[in-house]
Design a protein that fits this description.
Helix content is about 25%, strand content about 30%. By secondary structure, the protein is of the alpha+beta class. Strand 12 and strand 13 form a beta hairpin. Helix 1 crosses helix 2. The radius of gyration is 17 Å and the shape is globular.
Protein backbone atom coordinates (compact mmCIF):
# COMPACT_ATOMS: atom_id res chain seq x y z
CA UNK A 1 0.00 0.00 0.00
CA UNK A 2 1.33 3.43 -0.93
CA UNK A 3 1.28 6.28 1.53
CA UNK A 4 -0.10 9.66 0.52
CA UNK A 5 2.39 12.34 -0.43
CA UNK A 6 1.17 14.42 2.50
CA UNK A 7 1.86 11.62 4.98
CA UNK A 8 5.31 10.98 3.49
CA UNK A 9 6.22 14.66 3.65
CA UNK A 10 5.12 15.04 7.27
CA UNK A 11 6.81 11.82 8.43
CA UNK A 12 10.05 12.63 6.57
CA UNK A 13 10.14 16.06 8.23
CA UNK A 14 9.92 14.38 11.64
CA UNK A 15 12.77 11.99 10.83
CA UNK A 16 14.97 14.75 9.41
CA UNK A 17 15.13 16.40 12.84
CA UNK A 18 17.46 13.60 13.94
CA UNK A 19 20.13 15.05 11.63
CA UNK A 20 19.32 18.70 12.21
CA UNK A 21 21.51 21.43 13.65
CA UNK A 22 21.02 20.92 16.48
CA UNK A 23 19.86 17.31 16.14
CA UNK A 24 16.74 16.30 18.06
CA UNK A 25 16.06 12.74 19.18
CA UNK A 26 13.32 11.03 17.17
CA UNK A 27 10.40 9.49 18.98
CA UNK A 28 7.81 7.20 17.43
CA UNK A 29 6.31 8.69 14.30
CA UNK A 30 2.65 9.50 14.91
CA UNK A 31 0.43 6.58 13.97
CA UNK A 32 -1.29 8.42 11.14
CA UNK A 33 2.06 8.98 9.41
CA UNK A 34 3.98 5.87 10.50
CA UNK A 35 4.85 3.18 7.93
CA UNK A 36 2.86 -0.02 8.41
CA UNK A 37 5.34 -2.41 6.79
CA UNK A 38 8.76 -2.58 5.16
CA UNK A 39 7.44 -1.36 1.79
CA UNK A 40 6.01 1.79 3.35
CA UNK A 41 9.20 2.22 5.40
CA UNK A 42 11.24 2.21 2.19
CA UNK A 43 8.87 4.73 0.58
CA UNK A 44 9.41 6.96 3.58
CA UNK A 45 13.17 6.42 3.39
CA UNK A 46 13.12 7.68 -0.20
CA UNK A 47 11.19 10.79 0.87
CA UNK A 48 13.60 11.42 3.75
CA UNK A 49 16.66 10.97 1.54
CA UNK A 50 15.39 13.65 -0.84
CA UNK A 51 15.30 16.06 2.12
CA UNK A 52 18.75 15.00 3.36
CA UNK A 53 20.27 15.42 -0.10
CA UNK A 54 18.67 18.85 -0.43
CA UNK A 55 19.89 19.86 3.04
CA UNK A 56 23.53 19.16 2.25
CA UNK A 57 24.37 15.48 2.74
CA UNK A 58 24.80 15.10 -1.00
CA UNK A 59 23.85 12.35 -3.38
CA UNK A 60 23.30 8.75 -2.35
CA UNK A 61 26.37 6.78 -3.44
CA UNK A 62 25.90 3.47 -1.68
CA UNK A 63 23.95 1.24 0.65
CA UNK A 64 24.50 0.03 4.19
CA UNK A 65 22.96 -3.31 5.11
CA UNK A 66 21.77 -3.74 8.68
CA UNK A 67 20.34 -6.50 10.85
CA UNK A 68 22.34 -9.28 9.19
CA UNK A 69 22.53 -11.68 12.14
CA UNK A 70 19.84 -13.78 13.82
CA UNK A 71 20.52 -12.35 17.27
CA UNK A 72 20.06 -8.76 16.04
CA UNK A 73 16.94 -9.68 14.08
CA UNK A 74 15.37 -11.21 17.18
CA UNK A 75 16.39 -8.25 19.34
CA UNK A 76 14.94 -5.70 16.93
CA UNK A 77 11.85 -7.67 16.00
CA UNK A 78 12.84 -8.13 12.34
CA UNK A 79 12.86 -11.34 10.33
CA UNK A 80 15.24 -10.14 7.60
CA UNK A 81 18.03 -7.62 6.90
CA UNK A 82 17.32 -4.03 5.92
CA UNK A 83 19.04 -1.33 3.90
CA UNK A 84 19.84 2.35 4.26
CA UNK A 85 21.46 5.05 2.17
CA UNK A 86 25.07 6.24 2.23
CA UNK A 87 25.52 9.91 1.25
CA UNK A 88 28.65 11.13 -0.51
CA UNK A 89 29.48 13.79 2.10
CA UNK A 90 29.65 11.07 4.79
CA UNK A 91 32.19 8.84 3.01
CA UNK A 92 35.77 9.00 4.34
CA UNK A 93 38.80 7.20 2.88
CA UNK A 94 41.31 5.48 5.15
CA UNK A 95 40.89 7.71 8.20
CA UNK A 96 37.87 9.78 9.13
CA UNK A 97 37.71 12.62 11.66
CA UNK A 98 34.30 13.29 13.15
CA UNK A 99 32.82 16.02 15.32
CA UNK A 100 31.62 14.04 18.35
CA UNK A 101 29.22 16.78 19.39
CA UNK A 102 27.37 16.62 16.05
CA UNK A 103 25.91 13.22 16.98
CA UNK A 104 23.26 12.32 19.52
CA UNK A 105 24.72 8.94 20.57
CA UNK A 106 27.45 7.80 18.23
CA UNK A 107 28.70 4.26 17.75
CA UNK A 108 30.96 2.26 15.45
CA UNK A 109 30.87 -1.09 13.67
CA UNK A 110 33.67 -3.17 12.12
CA UNK A 111 32.57 -4.02 8.60
CA UNK A 112 33.47 -5.51 5.25
CA UNK A 113 32.64 -3.20 2.34
CA UNK A 114 32.64 -3.69 -1.41
CA UNK A 115 32.62 -1.34 -4.37
CA UNK A 116 31.07 -2.43 -7.64
CA UNK A 117 32.91 -2.24 -10.93
CA UNK A 118 29.87 -3.06 -13.02
CA UNK A 119 26.16 -2.60 -12.35
CA UNK A 120 24.04 -5.36 -10.89
CA UNK A 121 20.89 -5.04 -12.97
CA UNK A 122 17.43 -5.72 -11.64
CA UNK A 123 16.42 -7.45 -14.87
CA UNK A 124 19.09 -10.12 -14.36
CA UNK A 125 17.72 -11.36 -11.05
CA UNK A 126 17.29 -13.46 -9.07
CA UNK A 127 20.90 -13.04 -8.05
CA UNK A 128 23.34 -15.46 -6.40
CA UNK A 129 26.88 -15.21 -5.06
CA UNK A 130 28.08 -16.53 -8.41
CA UNK A 131 26.28 -13.79 -10.37
CA UNK A 132 27.18 -10.83 -8.14
CA UNK A 133 30.83 -11.69 -7.43
CA UNK A 134 32.08 -10.72 -10.94
CA UNK A 135 30.58 -7.26 -10.45
CA UNK A 136 32.69 -6.55 -7.34
CA UNK A 137 35.66 -4.33 -8.17
CA UNK A 138 37.19 -4.15 -4.70
CA UNK A 139 36.75 -5.27 -1.11
CA UNK A 140 37.66 -3.07 1.87
CA UNK A 141 38.04 -2.98 5.61
CA UNK A 142 35.55 -0.42 6.82
CA UNK A 143 33.96 1.29 9.80
CA UNK A 144 30.33 2.29 9.84
CA UNK A 145 29.41 5.28 11.97
CA UNK A 146 25.98 4.84 13.52
CA UNK A 147 23.94 7.33 15.50
CA UNK A 148 21.20 6.42 17.96
CA UNK A 149 18.89 9.25 16.96
CA UNK A 150 15.95 7.79 18.86
CA UNK A 151 14.25 8.35 22.20
CA UNK A 152 15.41 5.47 24.42
CA UNK A 153 15.37 2.85 21.65
CA UNK A 154 16.55 0.05 23.99
CA UNK A 155 13.87 0.49 26.66
CA UNK A 156 10.95 1.07 24.32
CA UNK A 157 9.22 -1.49 22.12
CA UNK A 158 11.35 -1.95 18.98
CA UNK A 159 10.22 0.41 16.23
CA UNK A 160 12.07 -1.14 13.31
CA UNK A 161 9.83 0.48 10.68
CA UNK A 162 10.93 3.93 11.80
CA UNK A 163 14.56 2.80 11.98
CA UNK A 164 14.42 1.43 8.42
CA UNK A 165 12.82 4.65 7.18
CA UNK A 166 15.63 6.59 8.88
CA UNK A 167 18.38 4.60 7.13
CA UNK A 168 18.77 2.27 10.09
CA UNK A 169 21.06 4.34 12.31
CA UNK A 170 23.44 5.16 9.43
CA UNK A 171 25.60 8.27 9.88
CA UNK A 172 28.72 7.73 7.76
CA UNK A 173 31.49 5.34 6.79
CA UNK A 174 35.26 5.07 6.65
CA UNK A 175 36.50 2.84 3.84
CA UNK A 176 40.01 1.39 3.85
CA UNK A 177 42.30 0.86 0.88
CA UNK A 178 40.81 -1.19 -1.98
CA UNK A 179 41.80 -4.84 -2.34
CA UNK A 180 41.28 -5.67 -6.00
CA UNK A 181 42.67 -9.21 -5.95
CA UNK A 182 40.13 -10.20 -3.33
CA UNK A 183 39.24 -13.41 -5.18
CA UNK A 184 42.35 -14.96 -3.62
CA UNK A 185 40.86 -14.44 -0.15
CA UNK A 186 38.46 -16.78 1.61
CA UNK A 187 36.01 -14.05 2.61
CA UNK A 188 34.07 -16.19 5.11
CA UNK A 189 37.31 -16.93 7.00
CA UNK A 190 38.48 -13.33 7.27
CA UNK A 191 38.87 -12.39 10.92
CA UNK A 192 38.03 -8.85 11.93
CA UNK A 193 38.85 -7.04 15.14
CA UNK A 194 38.02 -3.59 16.44
CA UNK A 195 40.09 -1.51 18.82
CA UNK A 196 39.15 1.64 20.68
CA UNK A 197 42.18 3.53 22.01
CA UNK A 198 44.30 0.38 21.47
CA UNK A 199 41.95 -1.80 23.55
CA UNK A 200 40.43 -4.67 21.60
CA UNK A 201 36.65 -4.47 22.00
CA UNK A 202 35.43 -7.23 19.70
CA UNK A 203 36.27 -9.80 17.04
CA UNK A 204 34.35 -11.73 14.42
CA UNK A 205 34.54 -13.45 11.04
CA UNK A 206 33.22 -12.83 7.57
CA UNK A 207 31.05 -15.92 7.93
CA UNK A 208 29.09 -14.16 10.69
CA UNK A 209 27.35 -12.13 7.95
CA UNK A 210 24.19 -13.63 6.35
CA UNK A 211 24.26 -17.35 5.62
CA UNK A 212 27.96 -17.77 6.23
CA UNK A 213 29.37 -15.63 3.41
CA UNK A 214 29.74 -11.82 3.25
CA UNK A 215 28.64 -11.68 -0.39
CA UNK A 216 25.31 -13.21 0.60
CA UNK A 217 24.53 -9.75 1.95
CA UNK A 218 25.16 -8.28 -1.50
CA UNK A 219 22.93 -10.99 -2.98
CA UNK A 220 20.16 -10.07 -0.55
CA UNK A 221 20.48 -6.38 -1.46
CA UNK A 222 20.55 -7.04 -5.21
CA UNK A 223 17.40 -9.15 -4.98
CA UNK A 224 15.69 -6.64 -2.68
CA UNK A 225 16.44 -3.88 -5.16
CA UNK A 226 15.36 -6.05 -8.08
CA UNK A 227 11.90 -6.38 -6.55
CA UNK A 228 11.78 -2.58 -6.47
CA UNK A 229 12.94 -2.40 -10.09
CA UNK A 230 16.25 -0.78 -9.22
CA UNK A 231 19.79 -1.52 -10.37
CA UNK A 232 22.91 -1.24 -8.22
CA UNK A 233 25.10 1.02 -10.38
CA UNK A 234 28.81 0.83 -11.08
CA UNK A 235 30.99 2.37 -8.31
CA UNK A 236 28.22 1.78 -5.75
CA UNK A 237 29.58 1.23 -2.22
CA UNK A 238 27.93 -1.50 -0.16
CA UNK A 239 28.55 -2.04 3.53
CA UNK A 240 27.90 -5.75 3.97
CA UNK A 241 27.45 -5.80 7.75
CA UNK A 242 29.41 -5.79 10.97
CA UNK A 243 31.48 -8.68 12.29
CA UNK A 244 31.61 -7.00 15.72
CA UNK A 245 28.70 -5.84 17.85
CA UNK A 246 28.10 -2.08 17.82
CA UNK A 247 30.27 -0.16 20.28
CA UNK A 248 29.35 3.32 21.55
CA UNK A 249 32.21 5.80 21.72
CA UNK A 250 33.23 8.77 23.83
CA UNK A 251 34.70 12.10 22.85
CA UNK A 252 38.39 11.74 22.02
CA UNK A 253 38.18 8.04 21.10
CA UNK A 254 40.18 6.62 18.21
CA UNK A 255 38.73 3.51 16.58
CA UNK A 256 40.54 1.05 14.32
CA UNK A 257 38.92 -1.79 12.37
CA UNK A 258 41.36 -4.39 11.08
CA UNK A 259 40.39 -7.28 8.83
CA UNK A 260 42.84 -9.99 7.78
CA UNK A 261 43.87 -9.52 4.18
CA UNK A 262 41.89 -6.31 3.82
CA UNK A 263 43.87 -3.87 5.98
CA UNK A 264 42.46 -1.21 8.30
CA UNK A 265 40.14 1.76 8.61
CA UNK A 266 40.28 4.40 11.35
CA UNK A 267 37.81 6.85 12.86
CA UNK A 268 38.67 9.62 15.34
CA UNK A 269 36.06 11.50 17.38
Amino acid sequence: MSQSQESLTKAAAILSRGRGNPAVAIGHVQSEFAPADVDEAMQLQDALNEILTRDGLGQVVGTKIGCTTKVMQEFLGMSHPCSGAIFDSTVHSGEGHFDFDSFLHVGVECEIAVQLGSPIEAANGPHTVETVAPMVKSVHAAIEIVDDRYVDFVAREPDWRTWVADNFFGAGIVVGEPVTDWQSLALPDIRGRMRINDDEVGTGYGRDIINGHPLEALVWLANEQSVRGRDLPADWIVMLGSVVQTKWVSKGDAVVAELDGLGTAKAVF
